[in-house]
C-alpha cells in the first residue's frame, strides 16, 4: 500500500518521506580533504560530519571544513567540531574552518570559540 504525504503541513505520518537535514560532500585535494556540510548541523545530524572528518584523518590528511552551505548550527554541533579539531591535532593534522557565514561566526563568538575554530576571521583588539 502506498501513501501520499500528509495533506496538512502540520501533520506527520511515519510513512511520509523526510529530506535529510544534512548532506556532506567530500572534495579530495592533493594535500588535504575538503569536507563540505550542506544544511543543518545539530545533534541529530553531526554524526555524518564526524564520519567524514574521521575518514579524512584515517587517511592521514588535513581537513578543510567548508561551512559556506551550513544553514543552522547548534551548540552540540559546535562542541563536536571542537572535539574533531582536537582529534585532528592529536593525530598530527589540522582541521580548519573556512567559508564561515556571519550568522555562524556570531554563534562561535558568543560561545567564545571563534578564536579557536577560525582564528583567521577574528579581529584582534590590542
From TrEMBL:
InterPro entries: MlaB-like_STAS, STAS_dom, STAS_dom_sf. Residues 39-126 form the STAS domain. It comes from the Bacteria. Pfam families: STAS_2 (PF13466). This is Anti-sigma-factor antagonist. It comes from Kineococcus radiotolerans (strain ATCC BAA-149 / DSM 14245 / SRS30216).
